[in-house]
């Protein structure tokens, strides 16, 4: 496991806090909800645990629907040294990876005191999203639950149900289509519903993948402009600057099944195609005369298993005629471990050793345009907004509201119970 992993004892260890702080742990729980063994299907329905607006599986929902609440879904991360291994066990559950191999990744977290910044970033996003929804006149509570660490999804769902919530619109903190960035969220929602005993009581839809939303792209546009200006101010010519759009690598077999099979001729399926479309739009707005490429990072599979390439460090090493590198963390919403370690430490070190000037531009975080984009995704579903009126800045999109059959299957693990998409 060469790269960073992507991203029990008591029944309930958190409490619901209705204010800006979200859920705060009141005890220690080390394991995520167990895998679901079944998914309830309403009579005649094709989409499990879905609202009446989506249960029949339309690609895009154009029927207005009044949700009860929003579910902000994060990857989760450790918040102390004692959390690191239990967290990594959650992330890799079912893969049979021994602790000694997990320790190869754990040292990345231990380097930062065992604390991933992702939970604090999500607390900030939670607060900003609540404020922005209120400013837009959307009176919906926002619950926050993580897939792999406290606050867990089943705890968030239990709190919502206790508050009388029956329908939720979920916002994953991931913009693209792949097993780990979309379908695994859907599986974990199914796990959480079963664990909380809410399969009959709670319905969950999800917003579309937002890689093509102008508000998601705007922070990167600004970052690339600033990065290029800094590179030029440091004495590099324009033809000496390479812009590298970085995202998490995934197994090529997974990539081929991403994006509902709509990109059979794409090297990397829908996952790569969506990133390339986003990068092309950012370049068109920010630096149309500059050289750029899509690179990958954070590989964690065995050497015998093909993953998407090139790795960012290999790409940097292979550069010729360049004196500067602008790294764009296109695959990430916030500055969590894959950004802090794999880009700010490893890739930056590779560039420096090659004698290259290097900078890394910010992730969207809580940039106002990104937060407003999330609000817009909620509004389009409440309104039942027609597809042609939805915000979209790339050649691909707007993406589907309901995931298509077989989209983003993991061929090694097989189909697991999942919601918010057509079966299987």
TrEMBL record:
Pathway: Porphyrin-containing compound metabolism; protoheme biosynthesis. It is found in: Cytoplasm. Residues 1-60 are annotated as: Disordered. Keywords: Cytoplasm, Heme biosynthesis, Iron, Lyase, Metal-binding, Porphyrin biosynthesis. Gene3D superfamilies: 3.40.50.1400. Fe(2+) binds at residues 248, 338. Its EC number is 4.99.1.9. Belongs to the ferrochelatase family. Involved in coproporphyrin-dependent heme b biosynthesis. Catalyzes the insertion of ferrous iron into coproporphyrin III to form Fe-coproporphyrin III. PANTHER family: FERROCHELATASE, FERROCHELATASE, MITOCHONDRIAL. This is Coproporphyrin III ferrochelatase. It comes from Leucobacter alluvii. The gene is cpfC.
